[in-house]
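Human: For the file, kindly provide a plain-text protein record giving the amino acid sequence and the backbone structure tokens, at your earliest convenience.
Assistant:
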Amino acid sequence: MAQVTATAERVVNAPADRVRAAVADYETTRPTILTEHYSDYAVRSGGQGAGTTVHWKLAATEKRVRDVLAEVTQPAPGQLVERDTNSSMVTTWTVTPAGDAASTVTITTTWNGAGGIGGFFERTFAPKGLKRIYDGVLANLDAAVQK
């Protein structure tokens, strides 16, 4: 099995501390920035940053829906890691300052891909599809932190 990686990045027009707080807010902010690809979103425990457990379904395509139960850690300041307990998927959110009034937000997801021809198609198309979904989430985040 080969590791598959999808990454999206955006400069968000708000200071890093505000963006980090928004990204870590699984109770209020996070559900408002998710796109139509997400459903059944629910905080199971915690709700603010590390120690949170959150559930959602992610529809990458009409036929491909992933049921995610993520446990959140914060290995470094400005970084949240969501580990799916149902699979090998790990999503890392990184927020770094980009001047006084802006931040760079990067979302990187990795997982163990399938083997064979199915794995080839997964490695080829899944990262592009997930990047498009994340681009929408990042656009919504940008709008949310400017309110």
